[in-house]
Amino acid sequence: MVRSTAWLLGALLGLICVLPPVLMTPRTAQCTSLKTLKNKLIGRRRNMKHNLPINYTIRVHYEEVFKLSNITRLRARVEDLEDGDLQDVWLLVNQEVLKRILRVLPVRHPSYKYTTDLEDLFRKVQQVFPPQSDEREPPEQIEEIYKRVKEIDSKGWRFVTPKSLLDNCYRTMHCLFKDCFPSEDREQDYCGLPHWRKGRKRLQ
Ligand SMILES: *[C@@H]1O[C@H](CO)[C@@H](O)[C@H](O)[C@H]1NC(C)=O
Ligand SMILES: *[C@@H]1O[C@H](CO)[C@@H](O)[C@H](O)[C@H]1NC(C)=O
């Protein structure tokens, strides 16, 4: 029953994505995979909060906490920053975050499969990411983030809940790929915190 409902929903969503040929841009594939990811992320409360002990936290690098405020700060401070740079950081950071969450979950944990499904969806998103041009090097500050995320012996650790990490993922995704998430409200500012405060009641 649940399965067939899920299937129907999937089919319906597929249809909606296929129907309007006017919207077919080169970014369509990217948006399709991001929307699938978004739908999966809607289940993060149950999987990353209710299925875990109260206030359970995991240890992550400073850089793995990538929030809206980071985007605002980087946009203000880094010269020659392109959205593609931030999108690359988003992808890398969140793939690292998922690895960290998986490391603390036993295979039979009720959230294990959810997390590996997210990993798969991230791989799909990565496959349709536009490659960065060879001629351009990312700004130094961005390179620095890559380096620090990959460092095994980081000096800076923070303890955060898996749910808050996925909240960051969800919000920054809307901010960085806002073309993929059109809204009826034209004033919608996914990059601003007030949008998400307001949205709390809507289970976002
Ligand atoms: C969980 O954290 C909240 C907010 O920091 C705190 O009020 C609450 O007492 C904590 N609950 C437990 C069981 O530690
Ligand atoms: C985001 O900002 C926090 C400080 O608020 C910092 O510790 C973290 O490294 C930043 N993340 C990235 C990816 O720059």
From TrEMBL:
InterPro entries: IL-34, IL-34_sf
Pfam families, alphabetized: IL34
Signal peptide per UniProt: 1-24
Superkingdom of the organism of origin: Eukaryota
Entry's Gene Ontology cellular component terms: extracellular space
The entry's keywords: Signal
GO MF annotation, one: macrophage colony-stimulating factor receptor binding
An example Gene Ontology biological process: positive regulation of cell population proliferation
PANTHER family reported for this sequence: INTERLEUKIN-34 (PTHR28606:SF1)
Protein name as it appears in the record: Interleukin-34
Organism: Salvelinus namaycush
Gene assigned in the entry: il34
